[in-house]
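In the current project phase, we have settled on a layout for protein records. One protein thus recorded is set out beneath this paragraph:
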Amino acid sequence: SPLNPFFQAMESEISAAFDSGEPEDILSRAFKLTVTREDICTLQPLGWLNDRIMNFYMGLLVERSKKEGYPAVYAFNTFFYSKLSSTSHKGVKKWTKGVDIFEHDVILVPIHLRIHWTLLVVDLREKTIKYFDSLGQKGDHICETVLKYLEEESREKRNIELTASEWTLHSMGTEEIPQQNNGNDCGVFVCKFADFISRDKPIIFTPEHMPYFRRKMVWEIIHQQLL
């Protein structure tokens, strides 16, 4: 309720993040990333989320996944897929230096398609690769590109051949996942798809939740803590 003091304190903090100070003020720092007021302002209603906000939020999800009771999550950054699709495995081989991505349960791949954010999710437990697009476009070729990457990564890092035929690739249909009702919320949808998936929860939010999610994300990024 609006009378809840915690809620009131949050609201005033969120408003202050948007309204007071200079664009270059640093509001949060973690995961080798610096988030400025200007970055945070992309979370205002109808703002387009930028790479820093997306990557910072993915960092928070990975951090949370280290706690008891959560699936182990690995997240690539938002530049990974464009690099992979333009160069193949060779171009991104060093990105996983010192990491065995196959030791995780879930791999998140946020994807930037010129002016649209989408999400690819690898579930290593189920051997599935799913593509989530809040505008309902299919990403079968993206699933295939990532499967090919996983095959090469497995061969190179673990000397193990993946059996492609054991894997299921699927672009989520518009009846399976919520769809955005404007041209601005794709980044928030991607963050929330990732949030629900990284808790093994069914995706039950709707476009009506977007204004609330945006404000909540401001608080979470500033405090480096998911509510």
The chain has a mean pLDDT of 93. Residues 8-223 form a domain with the Adenoviral Proteinase; Chain fold (CATH 3.40.395.10). The chain is about 40% helix and 15% strand.
